[in-house]
Amino acid sequence: MSIGDSLAEARRQAGLTIAEVSQQTRIRESIIRGIEQGDFSACGGDFYARGHIRSIASVVGIDPVPLIREYDVEHGPLGAMRAADVFEPSTPIKIRERRSPSLSLIVVVVLLAIIGFSAYHLVSAHNKGHQALAATRPTVTAQATPKATHTVKPSPSPTPTSTDVVIHLAAVEECWVQLTSSTDGSQLYMGTIPAGSSMTWTEKHAVKITLGNPGGIVLTVDGKKQNPDTTLPVTLSFSPGTTPQSS
């Protein structure tokens, strides 16, 4: 039985429709339908195809490891493809050639320069007249009254509380990351973290984090280092005051 047949049969046995699987995995229905028919062209590459197989298998209740192993046999093991390569445009971006300024633009610039030069001379002559008038008047020295000053203290930065879950990720190698809310499934972050960079999230509710390259990152949650499976992309669940759960 092929990968697609196994996923479709497990979905039917679980009593789920393609639309329901799409809602739980946040994968488009057209991609799920193509995977069940053995077509992985819409996945965006082998990296994402493996991730989709894992997500769908978790929802329909079967072990994704044998399916991913079968995918590797048919399509080859996971290579060194960068996740950012998927987002490169398929056609080069055209850059407009720089045109020479038109004659009308040149005329406008020249007129503005003439107006500015005339205004400068008019203001200078006006200031000189005021200075000459001021020279004939007696000088009165007034003592300035010091104004009261107010020192504004910066507000302290908010610190995490016991009801927050603090996730810190330091990338030793480039890693694709997706952070979603376990409460309503909304996406909180998705992108590629370059090697040598780090990110920190402080959340008040349970979250799920998917790592495309778990072996290339150092993950700490609430100050405790985590040791996720480093062989394949992995999804972990965290909530305030609880231990991580892989999915």
Describe the structure.
- With 247 residues, the chain is of the alpha+beta class.
- Helices cover 35% and strands 19% of the residues.
- The protein contains 6 helices and 9 strands, in the order H-H-H-H-H-H-E-E-E-E-E-E-E-E-E.
- The protein has helices spanning 3-13, 18-25, 29-36, 46-60, 64-75, 103-135; strands at residues 165-171, 175-181, 187-193, 198-203, 207-211, 217-221, 224-226, 234-238, 245-246.
- The strands form 2 sheets. The protein has a 5-stranded antiparallel β-sheet with strand order 3-2-5-8-9, with no helix packed on it. Strands 4-1-6-7 form a 4-stranded antiparallel β-sheet, with no helix packed on it.
- Strand 2 (175-181) and strand 3 form a beta hairpin.
- The longest helix is centred in the middle third of the chain and has 33 residues, at 103-135.
- It is elongated and about 95 Å long.
Short synopsis of the structure:
With 247 residues, the protein is of the alpha+beta class. The chain has helices spanning 3-13, 18-25, 29-36, 46-60, 64-75, 103-135; strands at residues 165-171, 175-181, 187-193, 198-203, 207-211, 217-221, 224-226, 234-238, 245-246.
